[in-house]
Amino acid sequence: MKPKNNIQPDNSLWRYWRGLGGWNYYFLAKFGLLWFGYLNFHPLPNLVFMAFLLMPIPALRLHRWRHYVAIPVGIALFYYDTWLPGINSILSQGSQLTGFSAQYLLELVNRFINWQMIGAAFVMLIAYLFLSQWVRVTVFTVGALVWLNVLTIAGPAVSLLPATTTAATTTPAATAPAATGGDNAPTDSAPPTSANLTAYLNQFYDREKSRATAFPAALPADAQPFDLLVINICSLAWADMESINLQNHPLWSKMDIMFDNFNSATAYSGPAAIRLLRASCGQPSHHDLYQPVNQQCYLFDNLAKLGFKEQLMLDHSGVFGNFLKELREQGDLQAPLMSQAGIGNELASFDGEPIYNDLELLTRWLDQQQKAGDTRSATFFNIIPLHDGNRFVGSNKSADYQPRAQKLFDQLNTFLEQLEKSGRKVMVVIVPEHGAALVGDKMQMSGLRDIPSPNITHTPVGIKLVGMTAPHQGSPLQIKTPSSYLALSELVSRLVDGKAFTAPSVDWQALTQNLPQTPVISENDNAIVMQYQGKSYIRLNGGDWVPYPQ
């Protein structure tokens, strides 16, 4: 029997249009985080994901299975849009995480939770559930995401990626003189597009490869012996000291020279120590830190060739993170580790190992130098009492940073007084590895250092010459130009003959004039932070450059 009418069934896929449903909240939450600068948002992958969710599917069962598949994809995409460490970084640090105590891991988890953000997300959820009764939220969500993609068709998104206008000021590092190879200094006159920033970075690497400190082939006959003591402090930056009001501690006023704009170039201990030990050459990329390098790059090797005895001190075992191994293999520091036997410890590290008393170690070092007589030595001393997660012996709770920093500064101040009383000629260089990240920002929480932000890599570096005939008078001489390890190597080379210790007077301005300047570029394994035209930009995992959120 034929049908009584000519009405045909509607086979159009659009009759199965179901909208985004609860996924609207997923995208709205992202838009909120994006608005306040908490996301490294990727518009196109999000648009593709939205299209996958919207595509009409006739079979209700398949439609449900699509949502099941979308859940892990949505979680992965959300993680990809955050500033959190990349998977490669997590895997590379995985072996170190196993060394953390259970109490420290629990503390990190609690620190990661932002209750204010959770509260805001709850309010947004209630608002969405209320408004979705009368408003087709999918239309707004689709329109907003399409608009974000339109903004990126011709270039980066407004307010997130580099603008296409040139800033009014430029960093002085662009035209800074160098020890050698200064004629090819990178310029930052081009607009800060992603391509121009990458070109600037490559130009920086090329220039740094040609820079090196020129140490003398031999010391003059009238050279004066002295000791070089490099104190490498873990987890100390200007931002950390300011947050606990210790930037005016008497220790820093005792310095002869202070670098006010020193960049540690990394946020992790191993790479920082390698960069310091290779200070006699320009700044390499993170990758090149673990590649063979010219022997002239090793600061302590250059000193050893001039008769300085290499020495190594740690207030820890050096086992965690293969730190001591990296000093040997990448830093070419082969000196035996000074004995820690009989040294007391009030602190235990985050992995439960003892942290030995730094003043006791320094006093032992001074006693040994005094017994050695009138000799030359170069000592590398790495200390970690300020590292995140350290606790007082007998306690399971992480010790507050402020009392630990106060005690360390007091100990170093006391040691300098001991040095002055001893009459020994010593060049003391205090150079932190990186900051402690006491104050977090929009990109990473407090204590996290996967991204080498300016607050982490801007470190206080001080130099004190003890035992001089004509010591420096007044407040420390401030080096305000952007500097890094090459400037330290150059300064050591200018003082290596020791004559400044016995000279009737020292021209401090001439001593510190035209030290090598280094543009502010810092990097870890998967993140690079760079100053360009007075602003900071970041690149994660080789992607596009975006302004560092303030």
Tell me about this structure.
- With 550 residues, the protein is an alpha/beta fold.
- The chain is 38% helix and 12% strand.
- It is built from 19 helices and 14 strands.
- It is elongated, with a radius of gyration of 28 Å.
- The N and C termini lie far apart (75 Å).
- 39% of the residues are buried.
- Keywords: Membrane, Transmembrane, Transmembrane helix.
- InterPro entries: BcsG.
- This is Cellulose biosynthesis protein BcsG.
Give a concise summary:
This protein is α/β, with parallel strands linked by helices and 550 residues long.
Q: What is the 3D shape? A: elongated
Task: Write down how many β-strands occur, each being a DSSP E stretch of 2 or more residues.
Answer: 14
The largest β sheet comes out as:
7 strands, mixed
Ends distance: 75 Å
- Physical arrangement of strands within the biggest beta sheet: 3-6-1-8-9-2-10
Tell me the Rg in angstroms.
28 Å
Report helical residue fraction.
Answer: 25-40%
Helix/strand/pairing class, anyone?
alpha/beta
Strand content: 5-15%
Note poorly predicted spans.
155-182
Number of H- or I-type helical stretches: 19
What's the mean pLDDT score?
Answer: 87
Keywords: Membrane, Transmembrane, Transmembrane helix
Protein name: Cellulose biosynthesis protein BcsG
Organism: Serratia inhibens
Transmembrane segments: 20-38, 44-62, 69-92, 112-131, 138-161
